[in-house]
Amino acid sequence: MVGTEESTDGATGKSEILPLVEMPDMRISEVSIGTVMAQKRAYREADVIGIFSPTVFKGRLVTLEFGSSRLRLSDPADQPDGQAHPFRDGLPTAPITVAGVPMNAFLDSGNTAELTLPKRFMKTL
To answer: CA 8 to CA 40: how far, in whole Å?
Structure first.
C-alpha cells in the first residue's frame, strides 16, 4: 500500500476512502501497461479479480468483444476495417437507441448492471 484515495460512485454520489497500491510492470497478456496505481476494494462478484480503467489503455486501440468476454489491445495503426466509436470523458462509448431515444452509452465492463440510465430518463422511457 502506498497511500489512500477517495473514490466516488458516479451513480450514487457515495464516497469512500480506499487503500492505494502500486503495481509495477503491469501486463495484460503480453502487452506492457507500465506501472499502475490502483484502488484496492472489495468486489461482490466471485469470478472477478480486478477492474481496469480505460485510462490504463491510453494510446492503444481497445477492442471490446462482449460476445466472447474478451478485450484486445493493439497499436492504433493496426485498426481493422469497420466502425470505431469515440471515447467521451475518457471512457469508450457506442451509439444506442432506447425506446426511440438515441444516446451514447458508456461501455463499462466493470459494471454489474447490463444497462444503467440517468434519472432524467425515468419519466420518458
So the answer is: 14
For the record, the C-alpha cell of 75 comes out as 497499436
The pLDDT tens digits for 25-71 are 888 767 777 888 888 887 777 766 666 766 777 777 777 777 787 77
What is the separation of C-alpha 95 from the centre of its chain, rounded to a whole number of angstroms?
16
Contact 22, 2 (CB under 8 A): yes
**Which segments of the chain are extended strands (E)?**
3-8, 15-28, 31-39, 61-65, 70-74, 87-88, 91-98, 101-106
DSSP state of 108: -
Closest CA to 52 of 75, 78, 71, 25: 71
